Amino acid sequence: MVCGICLLTRKLSGSVISSITSFSIASVKSNSKFSVSKKHLRRSLCSTRIHLNRSYGSVKMDYTLYEMPHSQLNSPPILLMHGLNLSRSSWRRTARHLVKQGSRLMISVDARNHGRSPHSAGHTPAHMAADVEAFMADHKLNRIVALGHSMGGRAMMTLALTKPKLVERAIIVDITPGPLPDDVVKALELFKVMVSVVSTIPKDFSLSKGRKHIIPEFSKLVKSDHDLLLIIQNLRKLDDGSFGWSVNAQAIIDGWDATMVNYEQTLQGLQPYQGETLLIAAKNESFVTPANVDTMRKYFPKLHVEYLDAEHKVHIDQPHKFVKLVVDFTKSCTACPL
């Protein structure tokens, strides 16, 4: 199974949080009931300007800000990046519970080539880390709690190792710098089919008919009807009548080696990150093996490991335990004014 396939829902619902607003960095998209301005976001959080690494050509990520009246504005916020083939919408419920039960603001982003963020040719953890760095500069964030799941976890590990002063602490979910399970590595074939199959859909097909048209191609590659549904829901009808994907499958293919196969090689020569790091691992998967934990400790010596009885989407399988682990880990603050 691919490490992250999700139905991309768009509509915010419920009123658990006093203010939840979806933004585009380029233009604010706010709902009259839940309104938080860009000016408020910039004023609320740490204001030290940071120096950017522009060598990776950052993109402006789409995001959602979550806060409660009790959120501590002087604490570095939690910045969350999702896994491969997902979007920030897959973390909406978890984000609400984290900000309700915890003390930190939370910002959930769509990684480049995913969700509502721009498509770009480059797609490696280094590219995604540069996007987070640029986001922090745009919003004058001095430090963050870097929370990443799977692909997003590797982006956050890269950020912590290359720009440690930007990361107060790190939370990595079911991923390490070590090797991935064979079935995940082989999932490259899925993205190759995504690239090739769209040209076979007639332009006069509706979106629903186009999705039905591609089912036979993907039914050969996935194990369940549920996974199949989640894949085809990524199909989109473009303005010119042709079809495309919410994710940039070609960019993911091009960055596959650095992201999925030889990620640890991209970390060679980097100094260990000396901040506190929490690894939340799924007991029912093989992403986090004892050997992989040993590998991760080389780069993150202050590593705490917690196993939950879950599959790869730990936050969905064990939502209450997951939220408690994150809330407890972020109660104290090493970068807050006294």
From TrEMBL:
Key words, A-Z: Hydrolase
Domain of life: Eukaryota
InterPro entries noted in UniProt: AB_hydrolase_1, AB_hydrolase_fold
Pfam families to which the protein is assigned, alphabetical: Abhydrolase_1
EC number, as in UniProt: 3.1.1.116
Reaction catalyzed: 1-octadecanoyl-2-(5Z,8Z,11Z,14Z-eicosatetraenoyl)-sn-glycerol + H2O = 2-(5Z,8Z,11Z,14Z-eicosatetraenoyl)-glycerol + octadecanoate + H(+); 1-octadecanoyl-2-(4Z,7Z,10Z,13Z,16Z,19Z-docosahexaenoyl)-sn-glycerol + H2O = 2-(4Z,7Z,10Z,13Z,16Z,19Z-docosahexaenoyl)-glycerol + octadecanoate + H(+); a 1,3-diacyl-sn-glycerol + H2O = a 1-acyl-sn-glycerol + a fatty acid + H(+); 1,2-didecanoylglycerol + H2O = decanoylglycerol + decanoate + H(+)
Molecular function, one GO term: carboxylic ester hydrolase activity
Span of domain AB hydrolase-1: 76-319
Family under the similarity heading: Belongs to the AB hydrolase superfamily.
Name this polypeptide is given: sn-1-specific diacylglycerol lipase ABHD11
Origin species: Drosophila virilis
Gene transcribed to yield this protein: Dvir\GJ10894
